[in-house]
Amino acid sequence: MNEIEEKDKEYIWHPFTQMQEWVAQPQMVIERAEGIQLIDDQGNRYYDGVSSLWVNIHGHRHPTIDQAIIEQLGKVAHTTMLGLINVPATQLAEELMAVVPKGLKKLFYSDDGSTAVEIAIKMAFQYWQLKGKPKKQKFITLANAYHGDTVGTVSVGGIDLFHRIFSALLFDTVQAPAPCCYHCKLASDPEQCGMACIGEVEKILEQGHEEIAAMIVEPLVQAAAGMLAQPPGYLRKLREVTEKYNVLLLVDEVATGFGRTGKMFACDHEEVSPDFMMVAKGITGGYLPLAATFMTDEIYNAFLGDVQKKTFFHGHSYTGNPLCCAAGLANLKIFREEKVLEGLEAKVEAARVKLESFSVLKHVGDIRQWGLMIGIELMENPADKTPFPWEMAVGAKVCKKARKHGLMIRPIGSVVVFMPPLASTAEEIEHMLSIIHLSIKEVTEEEQLQYGAKDVAAVMI
Ligand SMILES: Cc1ncc(COP(=O)(O)O)c(C=O)c1O
C-alpha cells in the first residue's frame, strides 16, 4: 500500500461507502487525467465511463476550461455575493438564460445539486405563503426519486435503502407512482405505464391541490433509481396537470442537464418550461462545484417588498464563486464552439446500435437509454424478471471487472450505469460498451457468482 492510500484510509470517510470494507481492500489512487481517461499512480489508464459521477462533459483538462480558471485566478478567486456583484457570475447568468427553457428568467446560485433542490423547495414553500395561500405546503414526489442527500432533499426522495433510516427527520410528502417500464405495477408497456402514472398524479391533484405547493420530478430519467426512463409525453403531461391545478412544477435537471439526454436540457425534448429548474454537476463542465436554481418572474416578483416578510433568507458562503462561474462560462463556450449538441446524435445512435448486441447476454434483463444516459439491468432470470438478490452485488462485480479491462464505471444495485463524457467519440463509446459487454459475460456467464460483496466496496452503489 503506498503512502497516499494509507493516509486516505487513516483520515477519510468516503461517500456512499461501507468503510470497513473499503479499508480492508486495496484501492485505486487517481493522480491525473487526460481527455476522457483517468490515470492512476501506476500510470494505468481507464476510460471515465460515468463522467466522474455524471459531472464531466468535455473531458478532463480541456484547454478552454483550464485557461478560463487560470485567467480568473489572476483576478480574484472568491468574493461574496452578499452585498456585492462579481463579473463571471453576472456573465454566466446572462448566458444561461439564453439556453434554459424560455419561461425561466432569474437564477439563484449555490454549490451543488442538493442545495439547488433545497432552495427550490424553500422558495416554492415561501411563494405560497406570500401569495396568501398558506395551506399550500405539501410536495408531490415520485417513487424512486433522488434529489440529493440533505434533509430537505431526502424528504422529497424515495429510495428506501438510502432514505428510510432518516424517516423521523423528514417532512411528509405525497408520493406518486413513477413510470418505470416493467417495474411498474400499473401497466405493462412504457407508454401505458406513463399515462397510468399521470392518472395517479391527477387524482392526487384533484383531491389535494389546495394543500399542495409543488411537484418535484427528475425529467426523462430517474438516474439514481437505476436509469429508470420515462416515456415520451410524460413530462409534458405533468406540466399540463400541474398547471391545471395551480401547483408549481420543480424540474431537477441536476443529472440530465447540459446535454446528457441528447439536448441541452431534458425539458427541451418535451418543450416544457417549468416553474423551477435546478442544475449543477455539468454546469462547470465537471470541474468545480456550482449550481443554479432557475425560476419564473412570477416567483421572483412574489418575493419583492417588505424586508422581514418577503426576503428569501438563504445563502451559502461560496454562492456565485467567480472561479466556478468562469468554468461555467468556458463550459458554454465549448458547447457553442465545438458544436457539442450537433455532434451528439451520431454518438447516441452509435450507443443504441451497440447496445442491441447485449440482447445475446443471458442475464441482461433491460436496457434503458435517453441520450448518453444508459442503464443495463442485470437479472437472475430475465424471462420472468427475477432480479439478482442485492447481496449478490452483481452490478459491483461487473464494474470491478470493467476496471481490469480499462473502464471506470459504477453500478446502482444490479444496474450497470454508463454515462460517458459527451466528448467521447462514437468509436470510444463503442469500445467502452464492448468492455461492458465482455465484463457482464465474464461475471454472469463464465464465473461462479457468489453471494457477498466484500471485495467490491469501491464500486458498490
Ligand atoms: C437528479 C439529482 N438531483 C440532485 C442530486 C444531488 O446532487 P449533488 O450530489 O451535487 O448534491 C443528484 C446527484 O446525483 C441527482 O442525480
Outline the structure in words.
This protein is of the alpha/beta class. The protein folds into two domains: 3-58 and 340-459, Alpha-Beta Complex (Aspartate Aminotransferase, domain 1); 66-337, Aspartate Aminotransferase, domain 2 (3-Layer(aba) Sandwich), CATH 3.40.640. The chain has helices spanning 3-11, 19-24, 51-54, 63-73, 87-97, 113-130, 151-155, 160-163, 190-208, 234-244, 266-270, 297-302, 307-310, 322-337, 340-356, 394-404, 426-446; strands at 30-34, 37-40, 45-48, 106-110, 138-142, 174-176, 212-217, 221-222, 228-229, 248-252, 276-279, 291-295, 364-370, 373-381, 386-387, 407-408, 410-412, 415-418. Strands 4-12-11-10-7-5-6 form a seven-stranded mixed β-sheet, with helices on both faces. Strands 13, 14, 15, 17 and 18 form a five-stranded antiparallel β-sheet that branches. A hairpin with a 2-residue loop joins strand 1 (30-34) and strand 2 (37-40). It is globular and about 65 Å long. The model has no long low-confidence stretch (mean pLDDT 95). The site of pyridoxal-5'-phosphate has 14 residues, from helix 6. Residues 112-114, 117, 146-148, 218, 223-224, 252, 254-255, 280 line the site of pyridoxal-5'-phosphate (PLP).
